[in-house]
Amino acid sequence: MATDWWLFENASAPCFRHYQWAFPETSFGYGQDWEWVVQTTSLSIEKLIRRPTGGGIVKHGSDWTYCLILPQTSFASKFPPLDLYKSVHQCIGMAFAKEDIVTKLQPCPTQTKKVIPGDCFEEPVGWDLMNYDSSEKIAGAAMKRSRKGLLLQGTISRCDEWVLDGKRFESNFIYFLSEILGEQAEHQDWPVELLTGREEVCEQFSSLNWKKNRIRN
């Protein structure tokens, strides 16, 4: 996720990347109390990842994780956050529909109370993507907006029972996403500067000062 942040700080155009995990990991949101997260997950703070975006606890491993970066100069960065959240999950739902997997959006309540997020997949919020039959959460995301633009980090759960062509799903998701963002999708090689620039960000995000106090030295 340090790579997501490096790209966010350096991107000059909208950027999308996705990745999977070599080992099971657990991340938690920027605004969550780290001590509560430690107690809830029974994991030490050293084993946890604090995201730069909000949201709740997410258990990674078999999920499909992605990030979307919209620099301040991009048209889509002006979208209202809730509208963007809904649109991204609609794109995921349409990509699943191409695989004959039926989903639905979690209704967004007309009035909400401000609460501290808990477990992301146990506590769906408005416009999360849900399994149509079981009403289990399939996809959620969290955002960070700053003067540089908007960073969205999302995760999509994968079910062993699904007969899904991963490459086709990826291609369709990116196509639908580029359509709603008004962008033309094209593959880009990793920036040369990432190799050295990411090291410093990785050190910051793995430090206890960040995990506990949200301070990047």
What integer value in Å does the Rg equal?
A: 17 Å
Please provide the ordered H/E string of secondary-structure elements.
Answer: HEEHEEEHEEEEHHH
CATH topology: BirA Bifunctional Protein, domain 2
Strand neighbour order, sheet with most strands: 1-5-9-8-7-6
Q: Please report the first level of CATH classification, the CATH class.
A: Alpha Beta
Q: Could you say which overall geometry the principal axes of the C-alpha atoms support?
A: globular
**Tally of discrete structural domains:** 1
Main pleated-sheet profile: 6 strands, antiparallel
Helix count equals 6
Q: What is the percent of helical residues?
A: 25-40%
What percent strand? 15-25%
Question: What do you see in this structure?
Answer:
With 217 residues, this protein is of the alpha+beta class. It has helices spanning 2-10, 34-41, 81-97, 166-181, 194-206, 208-213, and strands at 15-19, 25-28, 48-50, 58-60, 64-71, 103-105, 129-131, 137-146, 149-156. A hairpin with a 5-residue loop joins strand 7 (129-131) and strand 8 (137-146).
Concise synopsis of the structure shown:
This protein is an alpha+beta fold and 217 residues long. The protein has six helices and nine strands, in the order αββαβββαββββααα. The protein has a single domain, classed as 2-Layer Sandwich (BirA Bifunctional Protein, domain 2), CATH 3.30.930.
